[in-house]
Amino acid sequence: QGRILEKTGLCSQITFGRYVRQGRKLGVDPKLFIQDLQFNKVPVRVYQPKATSDGRRRGIIFFHGGGWVFGSLDTYEKVCRYLSRESESVVVSVQYRLAPEHKYPAAYEDCLDVTTHFLRNAEHYGADPANVVVCGDSAGGNLAAAVSQTLAGRADLPRLRAQILIYPGLQALDFNLPSYHQNRGVPLLFRERAAFFALQYLNGHAL
């Protein structure tokens, strides 16, 4: 459908994809305190359990997936609420800039800025700065890994406790690896689509 709309000039495939993937902000959660903020000018949504705690909680910084092109705070609202409730953690969901409007390294820079800000200010949100993890799925897993590698040698910040990488995209240089051939007919992310998303992220509107 996206290709048809693009050929007729009504909208691009990416615009259509964002429309069908858009989420909606859910109602009040009785177990969580949720607020929309900005960390270093990057929009974030912070989830804090309302229940009392004996000490400071774990912090989870979450980077959503979507091929660096799709995704928002609302599309991952249920996931982040679940993470915060079930793990009793403070969760920070990050609305990083999307490609192709903002090519590399915009998304990475946003995620890095949010992470450094939260590590420096975790206690303000009831989180333990020595117990902060980064987490992401797909493109978000790529961003989590990149942020972790960047901060590994920083002596001026608390060290990240862990990285949780959910089916992360960790390389975009070789689309002829055995896994691509073994799974070439398996939905959802075919080789051509993986290459498309990588090019959008790296080149943006230069394509």
TrEMBL record:
This is ADCL4 protein. Keywords: Hydrolase. The keyword ATP-binding does not apply. The gene is Aadacl4_4. GO terms for molecular function: hydrolase activity. InterPro entries: AB_hydrolase_3, AB_hydrolase_fold, GDXG_lipolytic_enzyme. Residues 60-204 form the Alpha/beta hydrolase fold-3 domain. Coiled coil: none annotated. SUPFAM superfamilies: alpha/beta-Hydrolases. Pfam families: Abhydrolase_3.
